[in-house]
Description:
This protein is mainly alpha-helical. Helix content is 78%, strand content 0%.
Amino acid sequence: MSMDEIRRWLDATPLLVLRQQISAPVLILFLLVLMSAVGVTYTAYLNRQAFHQLQTQLMEKNALQEEWGQLLLQHSTLTSHGRVETIARDQLNMDVPGQSRVLVVQP
């Protein structure tokens, strides 16, 4: 194929003919549609990122709630009256004072 034949073939190609006939409004509409498609794609990407972040934070919230429940249980166990009294007797050698050792103060 010679260069002249290639040029004739390219000149006869409908795409090149259409490209020469495209008007400014059509080109502007095409660019707007293209920008809209890019915007939709970018918004979908941001949505996926936000959803992933939400899932991560929900998992963290659940873990913190579980830890809070365990801490409440531990707190109630450590501060129960029976445990405090047992530690006071055994480790601190404390006892309940008798009636003769109790002094009532009135204002």
